[in-house]
């Protein structure tokens, strides 16, 4: 049996290209090949990294044990379904799918077929998360801001991420972290959001009330001039401010002489690299033991984040309809 996981990458756009590069560097992975519907893009990445570009997904999958899916969200389901049926281990970029019923089917099938199903909520691997997770039990209020410029045009294709609204495109990263931090069911959601340059919402805000009393206020935008990825957590005894982009943070806590400021300890690393390492390790364990282990971000984690994202999207759409936001 090979000591390396035979892997492939489906979709070599911005994220898929990074998957390709990092798999190439991973000592436990053998990068077999790539596939992209855009043959010119596939050829360019093939030449850059010295890897075979396969003509079809089926041919690539036949040569692999595990695959990354880095294509638009609205086609995640159809690709992942066939791969799981063929008992391939897969890592799907977020969101797991664009529809809840599709995600539920993938999760159930992966469990039935005993394959690894990971979801690319990469912020879970951010260097600041190790510290944040230790404070999870004290969480009372969360404030998250994830802002980005509008994605650039791509010839013959929609702009990256705009096949879904900004809630499923960007906010879902923070929703996954919030669900990971708050061990409670959602009690109520209030949300607003509007389309600016695309057909679905490009900027949105949600206030999430949990049954244990914790509250999260989350804002996402893909029409902002300056990017921002900040996460603030108010605990029972302190306050933490994190900057995901800068991979840094500070903690404010009460001391004998007033408020103390403490730098958050960070073991700096590449989050996507760690995500792929986790997927490769889990897949190799599954092959060697015959039992699929649990990746750091499971298919069920991806499903729960999607459910909350869809609830927020439905809520903001109902708000716009009720208040006749777009009626002249």
Written description of the protein model:
This protein is α/β, with parallel strands linked by helices. It has two domains: 5-122 and 270-298, NAD(P)-binding Rossmann-like Domain (Rossmann fold); 124-268 and 307-322, 2-Layer Sandwich (Dihydrodipicolinate Reductase, domain 2), CATH 3.30.360.10. The protein is built from nine helices and 14 strands. It has helices spanning 14-25, 39-49, 57-62, 76-85, 100-113, 129-134, 166-181, 271-289, 299-322; strands spanning 5-10, 29-35, 52-53, 66-69, 89-93, 117-120, 139-147, 186-194, 203-210, 215-221, 228-235, 238-243, 248-255, 258-263. The strands form two sheets. Strands 8-9-10-7-11-12-13-14 form an eight-stranded mixed β-sheet. Helix 7 packs across helix 9 (299-322).
Draw up the topology in text.
Blueprint: E1 5-10, H1 14-25, E2 29-35, H2 39-49, E3 52-53, H3 57-62, E4 66-69, H4 76-85, E5 89-93, H5 100-113, E6 117-120, H6 129-134, E7 139-147, H7 166-181, E8 186-194, E9 203-210, E10 215-221, E11 228-235, E12 238-243, E13 248-255, E14 258-263, H8 271-289, H9 299-322
Parallel strand pairs: 1-2, 1-4, 2-3, 4-5, 5-6, 7-10
Antiparallel strand pairs: 7-11, 8-9, 9-10, 11-12, 12-13, 13-14
Helix pairs in contact: 4-5, 5-9, 7-9
What's the short version?
With 328 residues, the chain is an alpha/beta fold. The chain has helices spanning 14-25, 39-49, 57-62, 76-85, 100-113, 129-134, 166-181, 271-289, 299-322, and strands spanning 5-10, 29-35, 52-53, 66-69, 89-93, 117-120, 139-147, 186-194, 203-210, 215-221, 228-235, 238-243, 248-255, 258-263.
